[in-house]
Amino acid sequence: MSKLKIAVQKSGRLNEDSMKILKDIGISIDNGKDQLKASARNFPLEIFYLRNGDIPQYLKDGVVDVAIIGENVLIEKGNDIKVAEKLGFSSCKVSVAVPKGATYNSVKDLEGKRIATSYPNTVNQFLDKNKVSAKLHIINGSVEIAPNIGLADAIVDIVSSGSTLFKNGLKEVEVILKSEAVLAVSPKISAENQKLLEKIQFRIQSVLKGQNSKYVLLNAPNHKLNDIINILPGMKSPTVLPLAEAGWSSVHSVIDKNQFWEVIDELKANGAQGILVCPIEKMVI
Ligand SMILES: Nc1ncnc2c1ncn2[C@@H]1O[C@H](COP(=O)(O)OP(=O)(O)OP(=O)(O)O)[C@@H](O)[C@H]1O
Ligand SMILES: O=P(O)(O)OC[C@H]1O[C@H](OP(=O)(O)OP(=O)(O)O)[C@H](O)[C@@H]1O
Ligand SMILES: [Mg+2]
């Protein structure tokens, strides 16, 4: 029987969340990450532990069928590789930064400048689009130090909290792209393994929908039920159960996790009491 081959980052920022998502979709893995390859015990799946930066080539060559990878790396190295699913972790930007004291009004200010980066293709595309020419210094890490040591006038690198820029006396002046971890698919995946991928994708979607939703329970006086039901944007329509105390009901609904704080005051104003908000592990619609 065919097995789906998935690449995950061996170590680094994506590793922990990648392993967690595999666990959340019920995959249990035979051996730990000291091995470069492992098998799932309960699904036809082989896991390859690789460097993030090497993964696009493995996908292109069909050595692996799918991978959990930073979208920024796919954009840099894997132009014909499709994204099957955005995974909602490792959110970051790829940005241009210059020394805090430098004058910067527009992208034209990069004309003729030296830019240090680990993302040359991304930078060249950005410069071409803006009809600006600059000289690239390609370095693999600690890019933010380049302006301080006189190696570059500007940098293009990953920005998340902005603290690395701040500590190195730099300011973000352009956001070239936004990225998060994605499930990427090899153009060479077989029809058989595509079916396995669909099963994995269905499970991932259930986990992600669960993570983005909350189960809300509350008590409401019966004469306010209609108002409260109208406030709660449920999956279908909320469940309403009578309480032991006459004239009161319990209302259960699933709502988007971000919507809860928006409707809480309205719920209270309409007489809702004993409001409970619970996490959802998985959600199948
Ligand atoms: N500060 C950050 N905040 C959020 N996400 C980040 C941050 N830095 C990197 N990422 C994301 O995590 C991915 C992996 O970053 P990490 O630094 O672990 O690996 P790497 O050194 O780029 O890759 P490799 O596995 O090839 O050594 C990046 O490609 C990016 O998508
Ligand atoms: O905006 P911030 O929250 O400060 O994050 C940005 C920093 O994080 C990444 O580096 P990382 O820590 O992964 O080190 P690396 O360069 O060794 O990969 C990235 O290359 C930036 O330097
Ligand atoms: Mg890094």
Can you describe this structure?
It is found in: Cytoplasm. One of its GO terms (biological process) is L-histidine biosynthetic process. It catalyses: 1-(5-phospho-beta-D-ribosyl)-ATP + diphosphate = 5-phospho-alpha-D-ribose 1-diphosphate + ATP. With 285 residues, the chain is an alpha/beta fold. It has three domains: 4-90 and 180-210, 3-Layer(aba) Sandwich (D-Maltodextrin-Binding Protein, domain 2), CATH 3.40.190.10; 92-179, D-Maltodextrin-Binding Protein, domain 2 (3-Layer(aba) Sandwich), CATH 3.40.190.10; 212-279, 2-Layer Sandwich (Alpha-Beta Plaits). It is 27% helix and 32% strand. It contains eight helices and 15 strands. It has a six-stranded mixed sheet. A five-stranded mixed sheet has the order 8-7-9-6-10. The chain has a four-stranded antiparallel sheet with strand order 13-14-12-15. It starts with a strand and ends in a 6-residue tail after the last strand. Adenosine-5'-triphosphate binds at residues 9, 12-14, 51-53, 70, 72-73, 90, 92, 158, 160, 179. 1-O-pyrophosphono-5-O-phosphono-alpha-D-ribofuranose (PRP) binds at residues 13, 141, 144, 157-164.
Helix amount: 25-40%
As laid out across the biggest beta sheet, the strand order is 2-3-1-4-11-5
Total domain units: 3
Listing every helix as H and every strand as E from the N terminus to the C terminus, the arrangement reads EHEEHEHEEEHEEHEEHEHEEHE
Question: Brief overview, please?
Answer:
This protein has helices spanning 15-24, 55-61, 71-77, 120-129, 163-167, 191-211, 225-231, 260-269, and strands at residues 4-9, 37-39, 45-50, 66-70, 82-86, 92-99, 114-117, 135-138, 154-159, 170-179, 181-185, 213-221, 239-242, 248-256, 273-279. By secondary structure, it is α/β, with parallel strands linked by helices.
